[in-house]
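Database export, one record per block. Field names are fixed; values are copied verbatim from the stored entry.
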Amino acid sequence: MNPVYTITSHRDDRVFIHAMPGHFVSANNHINYYIGTSDIKHNHEVSVDASMLLSEYYNTYGIEINTVLCLYETQALGAYLAHELSRPSMMSPNPTREIYVVGSEYDASGNLIFRDNLIRMIKDQNVLVLISCITSGRTVERAMESVQYYGGKVAGISSVFSAVENIGGIPVNTIFNMSDLPAYEFYHAKDCPLCKRGDPVDAISNGYGYSMLG
């Protein structure tokens, strides 16, 4: 079993992720660390604290959010984030907006779709795209394109961990970044040095978790 390291946020030591070194294959990349965000997504206390960290950015800069689009099981975190964004603060003492929380659904080709009953929560709304981990940003780019197809505007991107600082000109508001795990690297499959030196793949991973091989 590969070792697992715990990394805590420098802003709140009650918020943490796990990092497991190895050779992992995702939909878009090969990566040398699996980032575990299960506690932030599924542990009530950790999720609440994480949502407070993520909300600070939007409250500080006065960015209006109408809908939180939750990718890969981030609905609980998204609901707490929406709650934080709708609370009175020094920057927004009398918030009057309601904030929708929408889950993700994909068609057979992997395109993000919204059913007719949810389109009103995307069309003409300022949408925040929420995801647990961002590596190359391709998953978020596809989500942003889908929001635009349905007439929405992407006003923010938030993540638990991100290896990139912005996507499509929008800064990524993240709790953990490369400074928290400087050894983190990702590669295109054809350029993967782990494959070239014959390191076996440890697991297949995606936004839901990982499945060990062998």
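Remark 1: The mean pLDDT is 93.
Remark 2: The two ends are 11 Å apart (CA to CA).
End of record.
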